[in-house]
Design brief:
Largest sheet: 4 strands, parallel
Structural class: alpha/beta
Strand order of the largest sheet: 4-3-7-8
Number of strands: 8
Oligomer: single chain
Length: 234
């Protein structure tokens, strides 16, 4: 009787497998401009670099900051750049703004019309694109306007599992012009794109709302919370 013995060859890790095992975790690149983040996300190797949308970064930071104190006299108009739509930038930015101000609402402008620097060379593009914002701000000054109830939006959860929520306060704007002027003095806009901020600031007339960075708004709320905490301790 002849017995045949077969030996299974030992599987040795290939050079590629070894390199993958020894590869460091991907670098997380943080930016404050959604268009730049979108471009790098498209062209970077995700195994080496992760590029989240700035609004998502801000939402995660808001969940982790120990103290955020909203400004009770401030209303914030939130604009989500085109480059952040696929990353739910509007929801993240709205969640952050709602924790920093008394009222937060979306601009209802799908695109600001800048397209890089094209809106600077052809201002009519941005002026036409901002029409929904002008209509929205004009409607918010009407006597019969009131905020819609409340709307909860999911955002990045903190370590405790909690989620941020956007709360629209029920308010009716003042009827007289002097009161309306006082109301709009407390209104500002935020975005995660400098060119969007320029376009909407220029073409939000007659209310002339100034748009700035979402991160500035978050920083201000954090500073207020820190100062209030220090005052209470003293």
């Amino acid at each position: 009787t002849t017995t045949t013995t077969t030996t299974t060859p030992v599987q040795r890790p290939s050079a590629t497998t070894t390199a993958e095992v020894n590869r460091p975790p991907p670098l997380r690149l943080l930016l404050d401009a959604s268009p730049c983040a979108q471009y790098l996300r498209k062209h970077a190797d995700p195994a080496r670099v992760l590029v989240p949308d700035p609004a998502e970064v801000a939402a995660q930071a808001a969940e982790r900051l120990p103290q955020l104190e909203p400004d009770p006299t401030l209303e914030v108009c939130v604009h989500a750049p085109c480059s952040s739509h696929a990353q739910n930038g509007g929801e993240h930015a709205l969640a952050v703004a709602s924790r920093c101000a008394s009222v937060a609402f979306l601009s209802e402008v799908p695109c600001c019309g800048m397209a890089g620097d094209r809106g600077l060379r052809y201002p009519a593009l941005s002026e036409a694109a901002a029409a929904p914002l002008r209509n929205l701000l004009r409607a918010r000054t009407q006597p019969n306007h009131s905020e819609v109830s409340s709307l909860s939006l999911s955002s990045s959860s903190s370590s405790s599992g909690s989620t941020a929520a956007c709360v629209f306060s029920a308010q009716t704007p003042p009827v007289n012009n002097q009161g309306a002027a006082e109301r709009w003095r407390r209104l500002r806009g935020v975005s995660t794109s400098t060119t969007c901020e320029i376009a909407l600031s220029r073409h939000s007339a007659p209310t002339s709302v100034q748009f700035g960075s979402l991160f500035h708004l978050l920083d201000e709320a954090s500073c207020r919370g820190t100062q209030s905490s220090s005052m209470k301790q003293t």
